[in-house]
Batch of 2 targets.
Target 1
Amino acid sequence: MALPKYTEPHYRIWHYFYLFVCGCVFFFLIAPLFVIFPLSFNAEEFLVFTDGMKRLDPDAFSTRWYKDMVYGTKNPWGLAAKNSFIIAIFATIGSIILGTLAALGLSSRHMPYKGLIMATLISPMIVPLIISGVAIFFFMAKVGLAATHLGIILAHIILGTPFVVITVTATLSGFDHSITRAASSLGSNPFNTFMKITLPLILPGVISGGLFAFVTSFDEVVVVLFLAGLDNTTIPIQMWTGLREQLSPTILAVATCLIVLSVLILVTAELLRRRSERLRGINR
Amino acid sequence: MSSETGKILTTDGIPLEESLKQAERKNKIKAFLLVTPLLLFLIITYIVPIADMFSRSIDDKMVTNMLPKTYKAMEKWDGKELPPEEVFEAFYLDYKILVKNKTAGKLQTQLNYEKNGFKSVLKKLARKQKKFEEGNYKEQIMKVHKRWRNVEYWRAIKRRAPAYTYSKYLKGVDMYSNEDGKIVQVAEDRRIHRILWSRTLEVAFFVTLFCFLMAYPIAHLLATLPMKYSNLLMICVLLPFWTSLLVRTASWMILLQQQGIVNDFFVWIGLVTDDNRPEMMYNKTGTYVAMTQILLPFMVLPLYSVMKTISPSLMRAGKSLGATPAVAFFKVYFPLTIPGIGAGCLLVFILAIGYYITPALVGGASGTLISNQIAYHMKSTLDWSFASAMGLMLLTGVLVIYWIYNKLVGVDNIKLG
């Protein structure tokens, strides 16, 4: 955003001030994430930058916390990671199936009570997590699913579907329905039409909704706090316990791994969004 | 010509109008069937349990079920003087069973809520009642402790007779119904819930305000920069958005601690002295800073998507017609961004008002919010009906905002990323 030559001086100052403010906000947003990186390689047990680290002394850095994370005695992270992945993967599959079906129904112009139903389907995203947690806990306890993987998976499907519904509905808003009609008129049955025509076209939306559902499940701690027993501990639960009791560098090592994971997810989501926009651009 | 013959018929001989209606109905059912699995799933596992919280919050059957005979006998008692012998006898019989089943402790706790000092009286009775002889229970019970002669204690028992109560809701706003059945406020030094409610609203309001003030300039920058720069800067918004909430909270815990980098910086620029580092975590400051950073992307994204649609030529037109940049901004640009502002503010406010994790970790005692109190009653005091009541009070507030949001923005216009 270069300023034209004729800009008066006080507007020029104002403009640089504006850029400075923006810079500060971007710094505020992103900088906290970068504190974790160096500190997770700290050779000491403290969570501050030691003098050695400030001098960039190689001896002040070590990978001992990463070793502790993987090989540490009695360490909970292995089980937690396994549980987190199992729960998140099944919750994502469930959310994708239920959410995509519902989104297909909702984008049909024949859908009755569209607003009301949409508001209901989105509500788990809006209702404070603590309330969802209490309600789901009461339900799971009643049907005997508290402290089971299945109970947590079902709970995460509840929390994940709104994201799938939103992204798939958004993708379908640019969808040209005459293509599916063309397929039917050429003799394709509805299932085939869906698999061969609709699904490939809405796939970017489905996957990015699935990514949201995955992240929601993978990062969810409030509901799991109510539901989880000792065997169902997840990464967020372990982090939560660690942060409450004692902030150890091992947690920072885990946090670094999680940041790397979120970078991967971000890249995937961005690529999908662009692809989806490109596809919809052609459709219009 | 009659209208009958004027109708257009399909090849099957059915009037076209009817045939179209049939097709329409079929499509409606088809669309509805697609939504049904998710709708049913949510209703069973989510909506009904939330509604169930209401019955739990007004449920007061515990004491009623523990003293069935007593309450039957009390029906005729007017509560003015000491109850008659039958009530004493019924209470003795009920209490004996409770002591035998080792559930008397629950009754003691519950009645102690109703009347302070009830616990010790009941405990003494539990010990002495083994030696009771048959008949004339009134005399025997009154001999155990002189408070049994005080009609207040019997009234306290009677107050717990109904199976339903709204007392938990009163407790949620620091009120209770006193001995005469009047609704009064609790003593001033014990009004903790009102403090929590107002603090929750205050934090949600200021976090929304801070988010707005910070998000507006950067959303504007992102929307006006050429694509190749804005995509790069967008990562600064999206990366925190995709990163685990706990990771972000952990990084704030490191930054804000007393030996942390923010304090180091303050010492370095000479704002504070080294031995006088301010406490920035475990209080409201920590909650504000961390929540603002965590919720900021939710403000930037809706603002950005609205600003992206505003043509830059509008501002140029305003300026060419003689407006100064400031006037052009406030008269032309700002009004056009109001839908985005509304969407972002409502979204952030809704999310902030129910925040739990971050206040619990960086908030300390003075930075906790109403959600933390709900969790506390769920996990520590196990007063689930009170937790349900507070949850529903919070939910009502959120649903009102959600309804406004739906009216103004429309839930189907929520955009993610």
Note: The beta strands of chain B are 175-177, 183-185.
Target 2
Amino acid sequence: MSELDISRLPKGGKGFAHDFAADQTTFKGVPWGKAMMWIFLLSDTFIFSCFLISLMTARSSTIAEWPYPSEVFGLTIFGVEVPLLLIAIMTFVLITSSGTMALAVKYGYERNRKMCAWLILATAIGGLTFVGMQAFEWSKLIFHDGIRPWSNPFGAAQFGSFFFMITGFHGTHVSIGVIFLFIFARKTFRGDFDTGRRGHFTSMKSDYKAIEILGLYWHFVDLVWVFIFAFFYLW
Amino acid sequence: MDNEYNNNKIETKAADSSSGSYVPPADNIPASEIPEQELYHAKSFWTRWVFCQDAKVIGVQYALTATAVGLIGLVLSWGMRLQLGFPETFSFLGPATYYQSVTMHGMIMVVYLLTALFLGGFGNYLIPLMVGARDMVFPYLNMVSFWMFLVAVLVLISSFFVPGGPTGAGWTLYPPQAILPGTPGSEMGIVLMLVSLSLFVIGFTMGGLNYVITILQARTRGMTLMRMPLTIWGIFTATVLALLAFPALFVACIMMTLDNLLGTSFFMPEIFTMGEQLGTTGGSPILFQHLFWFFGHPEVYIVALPAFGIVSDLISVHARKNIFGYRMMVWAIVIIGALSFVVWAHHMYVSGMNPYFGFFFATTTLIIAVPTAIKVYNWVLTLWRGNIHLTIPMLFSLGFIVTFVNGGITGLFLGNVIIDIPLSDTYFVVAHFHMVMGIAPLMVIFGAIYHWFPLISGRHLNQTLGKIHFWISFIGAYAIYFPMHYLGFIGVPRRYYEMYDSPYMTTGVGLNQFITVAALIVGFTQILFLYNIIHSAFYGEKSEKNPWKANSLEWHTPEMPPAHGNFGKDLPVVYRWPYDFSVPGIDREYIPQHVAPSEVPTAKVEKT
């Protein structure tokens, strides 16, 4: 049953329609949770798109000067003004954590419990570092530069509003991800995915596929960050 | 791997060729692709009936909550009508109360009643039964979805009791007026409204993911997408729309909440209020309108598409005829759903946007008329020479077709920029959207309740009360909304607290009183309907199994009402679409979906 006979399906567009409307499952061999995560992420994409399109509208229609990101997000290290330094490190950490997540999924499917758990833990710590640096960035902008959600000394008030809202919303996503990563690290260390121990809330068994599903979420959060990075820091 | 699947034996019954030269096709049963779903079994009263994970119970919980909050919306409409019809008599209805009633009535009816009832109520109850699943794929998430919805409703209701009362900004909640002093409820009411909407979106997303994945990934053997009842197609497409449209509302709610609480300027331009300049600067109120209507227009179809689907099934079952053009119906639903995302700015013709932009949206809007007309033709052609049983669900279905055509045609007027501009913000608009997305979907909801009540409770609703309910609701709805078209034509603006002695009222005199009386009569008839439901649930005439002789799987469960797990020991196997009525060549009048071809070898049916 694990091998589906796809050779008999029609080719081309007809094949696509046939495949899509096929018996029992539309996405063959895809677990329910994974399909759900993809569709949730599609919905979440619309949320972030609305945020970013609103940002673009505001930026192109505001009457006041839009602040120059290299100055606002600069960091002075040993007396040298380095633009975008903190953001560069944050982005690096987050993208790296995506790498450890991908490795965790790989070791999970290989049933290498220890390695998988350590990599999930590494991912969680990467995420936590990111959130910590974001908190540092926020506090610098608020207390040092005097940027507020409703105003900022550099120009258009919408800059602060959108910055805190969008990075805050993304940071919430990362934080939720970090919480789940820690929970999953514990579950993996304990061997829940090997023994089929039941979930506390859902009372359902789960297996290593769950790690891939969490990984999808984590990669999505990273991908969104790339767009936020481009729109806020590079534009 | 193989031992995980206990029901994947490919059984191929030999064709019975003894009945002559006709050789029926072998009953091809595909192997099971999904393992048997592990169910959560409730152990106590609380987990069985309150914090329940069974989609059927959740569906009923959704429906009851939506109905309860819908009753509040109904009572609010009475207040509005009393004020409009008899402005001198009811002095306790001040302008603020009037605007609050308008706002809460609109939001409750569109989001908390219709959306929740169609998707949360009918969706939860019918999807697992109709696609042949034991439950939704994530029962726990499904339960959380309902409780989130309940919290959203409670937050909304709580806004009636805060200082300043609920928001009176109109259901569209346009800034800047929604959050400025002078608008009723600009203190706490608007915040609670926005929070409630955000919670609704979060709760709905949990449920919506369940509906979509159950339909896509958990169908029973033989249930291809093109064998699903149109009810499921309607609910499925509406859920996809909701998952993609609600994000815009969610974002708009967050931004407006921040504008209100933190004093940001997302939607707030530089503005003077009460002689003082506010601290806001440079925001765009039009941005809110774009976000709101990017949600708001698909929302119309979130309500309409399940109605389209359900009414197709009702018409087919009660006219004993297969649905005309099933594939066309499916594609029409999908195309309407897709088009609904590129028409939103037809709600904004008078917002000051570029006229050419308006013509683009007028074009896309009018294109929607094509698949919609296909659907109407197909309903009528299904009825054509059908064996029409004038049961109550059929009466409501017929009422739906007529009302929907009426509301749809006025939609063609309003979709054109040049006709819309003079009619904008008049009672013509009120009449249009009440006809097309108020009365028409409600007709389907009523029909669906009369149709599926025996399944849910095992008893019939009272037929006499049902007929009274239908005729008063149907004729009453026309008595209410037909005059409103006329009021709109002579220029009566909507959302006015009182018309005073304005020139409009010289020719329209008496109409407002007439509408009010009709509205009160229709409103009280709904109380009769509720009495019918409550009374029949306990004392109604007992229903036999499958009272309407329908084909779809929900009527063919071992027990009626269906038990936990829906289908007993083995899930049904599906061989055909649910519309094999009055098939030539056999002596039975209908062939349920799970009847194998070898059982009806002489039936002359198309292969579906």
Note: The mean pLDDT of chain A is 89.
